[in-house]
Amino acid sequence: MDSKKDVTVITYGTFDMFHIGHLNLINRLSELGGRLIVAVSTDEFNREKGKRNLMPYEQRAAIVGSIKNVDFVIPEESWAQKRSDINKYGVDVFAIGDDWKGQFDFLSDICRVVYLERTKDISTTELKKSLKNFLSIPHEDLIKAFEVLQMLKQDLE
Fold it and tell me: pTM here?
């Protein structure tokens, strides 16, 4: 390989409720090589994994594909496709968040495997829990809280 620009990197993920942790990961992945391929899990594959996504695949893939550091988006349709994708796209580096540490070492015979540190205190799972908790607050309580905040604001003015 002549330089880093000749290095192809691939990663996989659902990328639901796109957040700063996703952006940080993509930016760090792009620093590993000159070409970044992102495989976005399809809705069907997420169901197989027992995951529910809030945004459909087409929207998640469009968001990821619009990021300047992403060169190519492909659908992730199964666990088994990683090895064939690495061969098909001439991948040099398979990289993913360190919450998967050790899970993809079996690919190290065909490419370099890298686990990147996650962004501290941010995850889609936690965002979904927060949203669920917020949505479980009775509507009347939210209105009362808003009214109290409005009164406090007027008192401060």
Answer: 0.76
